[in-house]
Design a protein that fits this description.
The chain is an alpha/beta fold and 263 residues long. The protein contains ten helices and nine strands. A seven-stranded parallel sheet has the order 3-2-1-4-5-6-9, with helices on both faces. It has a two-stranded parallel sheet with strand order 7-8. Helix 1 packs across helix 9, helix 3 packs parallel to helix 4 and helix 4 packs parallel to helix 5. The chain is globular, with a radius of gyration of 19 Å.
Length: 263
């Protein structure tokens, strides 16, 4: 029997890559996002059920769940890939920007999980939240994004602890740089300042990453696929870091590396 997998943020980036990877496995897919056109494009390739709406809205989920159960009868997994920006330091972040960062990155995951949990409990299913290395460390002037992604780890652990006794596993994937439309946009200031093309800009931000490159969306999709599979049956409450090694780098010793020496 094919698994039914709900994917938020399914129209682009990692969500789209997850849909394409799981479609190859024969999964029944539910594709959720705010823009119909990219969802329909993905659905044409994967056969998924398209549901247009805001994953951060509890009222939207009332309709979503009814449609999902009517079509597939169950939910086996949720991949909460919806997210967004949260740019600016604290003093540069107005109320609207702060609320938007929380809504897109944290509220979307919470409302998705809360809505799907009754069905997931019935199937002893699983949830994957899409975090970031910003869940583990702070980049410059991304206060809203960093705070929301840190909070995702708290949500991950709370859900895993509360619903593990009912057979539901919950994990968080923490990627580093991933080549997606959102990350491409983040390269633009570097490209403008240094005269880089897009490939050179990614090489610049990955210069101190041990693997010296960003991930592809497909690589992160494979990690998500593993976490909802039976092969990961004992893993819950984990933050699986998929960042090419960037979070293991000892930043204070980078000056030695730049001199070509090993401290």
């Amino acid at each position: 029997m094919s698994k039914t997998v709900v994917i938020t943020g399914a129209g682009t980036g990692i969500g789209e890559a997850c849909a394409r990877r799981l479609a190859a496995d024969g999964a029944n897919l539910v594709l959720i996002g705010r823009r119909r056109e990219p969802l329909e494009r993905v659905a044409a390739a994967t056969g998924g059920l398209v549901l247009v709406g805001d994953a951060a809205s509890s009222s939207a989920w009332d309709g979503f769940i009814a449609r999902i159960i009517e079509r597939f009868g169950a939910i086996d997994a949720l991949l909460a890939c919806a997210g967004g920006h949260g740019l600016g330091s604290a003093t540069q972040t107005d109320d609207e920007t702060w609320q938007a960062a929380m809504r897109s990155n944290l509220d979307s995951a919470f409302h998705s999980a809360r809505a799907c949990l009754p069905a997931l409990i019935e199937r002893r299913g699983s949830i994957v939240l899409l975090g970031s290395i910003a869940s583990l460390a702070a980049g410059p002037e991304v206060c809203g994004y960093t705070t929301a992604k840190h909070a995702l780890l708290g949500l991950n652990r709370s859900l895993a602890n509360d619903y593990g006794p009912q057979g539901v596993r919950v994990n968080c994937v923490c990627p580093g740089w991933v080549r997606t439309p959102m990350a491409d946009a983040e390269m633009q200031p570097l490209m403008a300042h240094y005269g880089d093309d897009l490939d050179a800009a990614y090489a610049r931000v990955c210069a101190n990453v041990p693997l010296r490159r960003p991930a592809s969306a497909e690589e992160i999709a494979r990690v998500c696929r593993f976490l909802i599979s039976d092969e990961a049956s004992i893993i819950t409450g984990a933050a699986l870091v998929a960042d090419g090694g960037s979070s293991i780098v000892d930043v204070p010793t980078l000056a030695f590396t730049q001199l070509g020496n090993t401290p």
